[in-house]
Amino acid sequence: TLARARIPVKQLSGSSGHPETKLGAVLILLYEEAGELRVLLTTRSKTLRTYPGETALPGGRVDATDASFIDTAYREAQEEVGLPRNSPDIHTIAILDPGISGHKMVVLPVVAVLTKPSILDELKAEASEVACIFTHPLRAVLDPTIAKSESLVAIGSEDWPYLDVELHIKTAKIAFGLDPTYEQYAPGQLRTFKEINEILVRGVQPDKSPA
To answer: In Å, what is the CA distance from 113 to each residue of 25, 32, 64, 124, 177?
Structure first.
């Protein structure tokens, strides 16, 4: 629901057990082209201290000026790729369950739909943060064979993209009502924010005993 993203940042910080400096949001911007649902992605600059050269969603850490996580997602998208804020052609439709990044940051995914794709032609990467702006079929994260028809770069090359697809998979499963064509989780892997957060915040292994 959208209500979660409108919860004041300080309130979620207290309830999650994470300081505000460990809270962030990303924007999953979807649009339709030739009957296909696509998602806006970036390649992070190789000069960045964290996740250099990785494929990513626009987004980042909560700022003191952000009233909500929706504000964070759109502010970061504007700073990174020049996406206009408060555009009548961009519609926030959902907030997914939070995820946790490799640096233990709690990240809320803000899902939006772009109804005027020509806006993408006006985007401009902030060179200090973003090396490349591109789009890709959303369904490709559920069925990797789809990506073969639209190769990003040569497989195994220096620019071969690394992408944490967990948030993309969640979005695609909802959008298409399908599961991935591959096994998404390793045996025994923690799957929910609650399970992972219990370990990070309290060092407690989640109780998986039968109810």
So the answer is: 16, 9, 26, 19, 18
CA distances for 34 relative to 7, 116, 171, angstroms = 36, 13, 20
- Spell out the SS3 assignment of 159-189: CCCCCCCHHHHHHHHHHHCCCCCCCCCCCCC
Residues 6+ apart with CB under 8 A from 76: 25, 26, 27, 58, 59, 60
Distance (Å) of CA 8 to CA 24, 27, 67, 141: 13, 18, 6, 32
Q: What is the pLDDT of residues 112-170, one digit of tens each?
A: 999 999 999 999 999 999 998 999 999 999 998 887 777 666 565 665 555 557 888 88
Q: Which two tokens stand for residue 81?
A: 């790729």
- Tokens 């695609």 found at: 172
CA angle, 24 then 194 then 188, to 5° = 115
Contact indicator for 39, 138 with CB cutoff of 8 Å: yes
pTM metric for this prediction: 0.82
Per the CB < 8 A criterion, the answer to whether 17 and 202 are in contact is: yes
Q: What is the DSSP string of 46-69?
A: TT-SSSTT-EE-SEEE--TT-SSH
